[in-house]
Amino acid sequence: MRVIGHRGTPTGPRHTENTLPAVVAALEAGADGVEVDVRTTADGVLVLAHDPDLGRVLGTGVGTGPVVAETPSAALRALRLPGGAHVSTLDEVLDLAADSRALVVAEVKAGLGARRARTAVLLADHLHGRRRRRPGADRVVPSSFDTVSARALAGCGTVGGAVILEPWQEPRRMAGWARRCGLTELHLSVEHVRRDPGLVADLHATGMAVAAGIVDDPEESARLARLGVDLLCTDAVARVGRRRGAVVPAGTASGRPAGAARGGRRRGPRRGRGEGLSAAQAGTRPSSSR
User: Fold this and answer.
1) Residues with Cβ < 8 Å from 230, sequence gap 6 or more?
2) What span, in angstroms and rounded, lies between the C-alpha atoms of 37 and 7?
């Protein structure tokens, strides 16, 4: 099981989430990779930010800071976050992770209305471009709670692609939709696995890799490792990493080539009418705080 630092790592030495120092701290603490949140600036630059605005991380309160989507990247870069870090670009994190062969789970935050999938489309194009320039350098799993964004991300990740589920969504049903879209992983809430211990094995049997989070308890992380969870997202990298269980070979979250079922058949995107879920069918609600 691979251990992934949530937004880098907010525990241990204090670093502002979703910044280069937080990513470095997670990797130095023993993480196999990091999860970061991705938004788009007014001028189309992919940057790391969880909330629509930066008020919370600046310490002034949610809703009081610069809105990422409405602010040029240069203005965001001029800001200094607590601890002295600046707003990081996705490229900075990908370049850092590539040097250490670390995995990057890039969670796309959906926009509103007609701009709902803008970040996902930009990220997909960006990752394809990086792959042409630096073949084999990046190890990226793009992901999103938003089904429209997740579908737009299918096939652009160098390791896989994922849809993230809320606790009330049904994983087995969503697995079928994800496979038809060309996604290779389901990122579950830990509540899914708590109430259904056979779920991970069933999803693996369909060829899907499985991530779970957010888990900070070492005993629970060890239990999830025994159940076969491939990726564990945590705010406590060092503590959880000591109980992670066996580390799988490099490849994807599960050690399989991206898109390959357990029997070895490769699953590619299958597009066509009716392939996706509507918001109502998928149970789409506003994105989780994860």
Assistant:
1) 1, 2, 185, 209, 210, 211, 248, 252, 253, 254, 255
2) 7
Count of domains forming the chain:
1
Q: Domain for residue 279, yes or no?
A: no
Cα-based distances in Å from 120 to 30, 40, 46: 29, 9, 10
Supply the pTM of this predicted model: 0.85
pLDDT digits (tens), the chain, 290 positions: 999 999 998 655 578 999 999 999 999 999 999 999 999 999 999 999 999 999 999 999 999 999 999 999 999 999 999 889 999 999 999 999 999 899 999 999 998 887 889 999 999 999 999 999 988 889 999 999 999 999 999 999 988 899 999 999 999 999 999 999 999 999 999 999 999 999 999 999 999 999 999 999 999 999 999 999 999 999 999 899 765 544 343 334 544 434 443 333 333 333 333 334 433 344 444 445 67
> What is the domain-level CATH number for residue 188?
3.20.20.190
Question: Are residues 168 and 149 in contact, defined by beta-carbon separation less than 8 angstroms?
Answer: no
How far apart (Å, rounded) are the C-alpha atoms in residues 76 and 87? 6
Concatenating the DSSP letter of every residue in 93-142 gives HHHHHHHHT-EEEEEEPP-SGGGTTHHHHHHHHHHHHHHHHSTTT--EEE
DSSP 261: -
